[in-house]
Amino acid sequence: MSIACCCPVLECVYCLACARWAWQKCLYTAGHESEHWGLATVEEFEPVPRLCRLILAVYEDDLHNPLWAPPGGYGINPDWVFLRRNDQETQGRAPPYMIYLDHENADIVFAVRGLNLAKESDYAVLLDNKLGQTKFDGGYVHNGLLKAAEWVFDAECEVLRELLKKNPSYTLTFAGHSLGAGLVALLVMVAVQNRSKLGITERNRFRCYAIAPARCMSLNLAVRYADVINSVVLQDDFLPRTTTALEDVFKSLFCLPCLLCLMCLKDTCTMEEKMLKDPRRLYAPGRLYHIVERRPCRIGRFPPVVRTAVPVDGRFEHIVLSCNATSDHAIIWIERESQRALDKMVRHVSLAREHSEEHKAALQRAVALDIPQAYSPSTYGTFHEMEGAGSSGGSSERGF
């Protein structure tokens, strides 16, 4: 009898616990992950929108007559496209890519397209992996993406070597989205390890921008290569947070919300310390840039903010239950929001400069009008320092 009386109580406690978990998960937003990160600067984030447009340009068959150009166009010179490879030329070993000579920014850009849902070969690359299957440079990497990266490097090594020889002051930038992001992240690691084949000795001539990347390398590699690799994630994007086998994700593509809920439950029951100590676990690569444009319990989009860090723990460990989890993965949205974020940063910098110039002009005008206790701006100190010096001088005079 006593056991029967306890059953309803246990059911109520269980239901309350489930309701609390669901409530916390629904309130959890991607903005919480990066709330303690620093803000990105204009200089470091400036290449992101430009490289997103270059990645989009890989989808075009004829760049002189583009069909899907974003507002304002791709912002590139079609005559500066040095090389293009399509699906037939890559033989399904890698997604299509192109090499672009960006003479305006002294950069050689290797841009790789994202996943093509209609190509079985793209799925084969992404799904060719098992936990702890492949080691590289003291860590673990995604097996299929590493094989694709090594094939691309072997195929284009001589081309890149000649371009770098002809343009000794140019940087070499790898950029990709989704599947291409994981490929370029491992490709730049292969290139850094074999930079003698490219005729480069300086590590800082390599750069990589992985846009919405899949998890492709272990934590030690993700942190070690943070000086070269930069990952860009838009708000709730599901792929950089996907810890479940990608095969299960794409098998359940039409029921992705159900899978995301199950992954949330699994992540909740897994201790973070246990995850960090597993050397085989894969993570989003390099330095992270998180574009945040939505706030909890608010409708619509706000001016985007870009936060950046090289986190060790809290590295996009939790799936976000959001209706934007899949749309935030689209390169079109990432290009648009990254450009908005960059425009906002530039405006803030220009406003700060304008305010500083207005302040100097006001100080000079006050001196010109013989305003009492007015000081002209000094190049060796601030107005507050001069004001403090004046106050101390006045007090000493009163003392005498």
TrEMBL record:
UniProt keyword Hydrolase present: yes
A GO MF label: hydrolase activity
Alphabetical GO biological process terms: lipid catabolic process
Fungal lipase-type domain mapped to chain residues: 109-244
Pfam families referenced in this protein's UniProt entry, alphabetically: Lipase3_N, Lipase_3
Keywords, in A-Z order: Hydrolase
Limits of the Mono-/di-acylglycerol lipase N-terminal domain: 10-75
InterPro entries from the UniProt entry: AB_hydrolase_fold, Fungal_lipase-type, Mono/diacylglycerol_lipase_N
PANTHER family documented for this protein: ALPHA/BETA-HYDROLASES SUPERFAMILY PROTEIN (PTHR46398), ALPHA_BETA-HYDROLASES SUPERFAMILY PROTEIN (PTHR46398:SF5)
Name of the protein in its database record: Fungal lipase-like domain-containing protein
Provenance organism: Gossypium tomentosum (Hawaiian cotton)
